[in-house]
Amino acid sequence: MLSTLRRSFAALACCWAGAAAAQALVNEPIRPLPVKTVGDPARIALGARLFTDPRFSRDNTHSCASCHQLRRGGTDGKALSIGPDGKPARFNTPTVYNSSFNFRQTWTGAYTGVEQLLDHVIAKPAVFADNWDVVAARLTRDERLAAQFKDVYGDALRPAYVRDALDQYLRSLVTPSRFDRYLRGEAGAITAEEERGYLRFKSFGCAACHQGINVGGNLFQKLGAMREMPGLEASGADLGRYQITKRNIDRYVFRVPGLRNVALTAPYFHDGSVETLEQAVELMFRYQLGRTASQQDKELIVRFLHTLSGDKLVPGTPP
Ligand code: HEC
Ligand code: HEC
């Protein structure tokens, strides 16, 4: 009797799961993050260790985590981070969370991959002001660390392994949120108001640019796509991708930022000039869409954006 009951329960459970899977939303402009990340745990752990290591900077003042603070959404809350040279960086520090899903790295999309980006980070005065050989030599003097590299890579500590470990670690910084559960069809994962915000986000056209797995990060677009944005400088950082390509068509063009964890990463825009999410949304309506929206629509969209904050930010900690 009991076993029959158990069997029919099992059958029920099977169909329930089937029904839930069938309800996963399809044809949405935003795709859910993977539930599990792949990667070698030993390399990831080594990368995590390097991420907080101040020996990357000449004067031992800065680690990656100085500017990319995991508990602050992967940024440092400043408009522009200050590097070891005491000068502000050129661009607002983007989050490291989910950054491996971006088609290019940095605001101007200067680098196709993380390894290329890291070469730049090490040498840049505003970040570390050093070079790989010096950094590798300094790290190798730490016998325990050198031994760890030997364990993991079966070889002496080399810049290529440092890059690889950091790359693996960055790939592990994935932050699924309530919104991903909503996309997978979980009832009640987001509130009715948040869902209305998402519908506005789509119907007004935000999702034309902020889309895909990172809710952005897969397109270049002009800042001021529909209406010229006042106050942009005709030189320097504001020129965006033009800095790299020198093509007029790329003036004021940026990689569309991903909006995952955006509620945690103020201030906003490439120069950190926009203090609140409400202001950012307002400016997007005006200059990227050339539209006006009611206060209520903007508020609903902001509520939706909050659903993109990861359930847990620091790997290994409870949500
Ligand atoms: C002094 C502050 C600072 C430090 C230290 C720093 N970064 Fe950054 N990081 C930045 C800034 C600023 C940018 C954006 C640069 C740009 O857009 O040109 C950036 C961009 C990135 C990006 C690209 C993200 C994206 O979405 O495009 C990644 C990945 C990254 N950093 C990882 C690291 C790692 C790993 C380290 C340590 C080896 C590190 N950073 C150290 C400030 C810093
Ligand atoms: C035509 C493309 C486009 C459209 C449409 C668009 N955006 Fe953006 N969005 C961008 C670009 C490009 C940036 C980067 C601005 C900068 O670099 O200064 C951005 C930045 C943002 C930011 C700041 C992110 C950060 O980390 O600094 C938010 C928030 C945002 N958009 C939300 C929205 C919302 C909400 C809508 C709809 C009302 C929208 N966007 C419509 C292209 C677009």
TrEMBL record:
SUPFAM superfamilies: Cytochrome c. One of its GO terms (cellular component) is periplasmic space. Its cofactor is heme. Keywords: Heme, Iron, Metal-binding, Oxidoreductase, Periplasm, Signal. Heme c 2 binds at C206, C209, H210, M284. InterPro entries: Cyt_c-like_dom, Cyt_c-like_dom_sf, Cytochrome_c_Peroxidase/MauG, Di-haem_cyt_c_peroxidsae, MauG/Cytc_peroxidase. Binds 2 heme groups per subunit. Residues 1-22 form the signal peptide. One of its GO terms (molecular function) is cytochrome-c peroxidase activity. Binds 2 heme groups. Heme c 1 binds at C64, C67, H68. It is found in: Periplasm. This is Cytochrome B6. It comes from Massilia atriviolacea. The lineage of its organism: Bacteria, Pseudomonadati, Pseudomonadota, Betaproteobacteria, Burkholderiales.
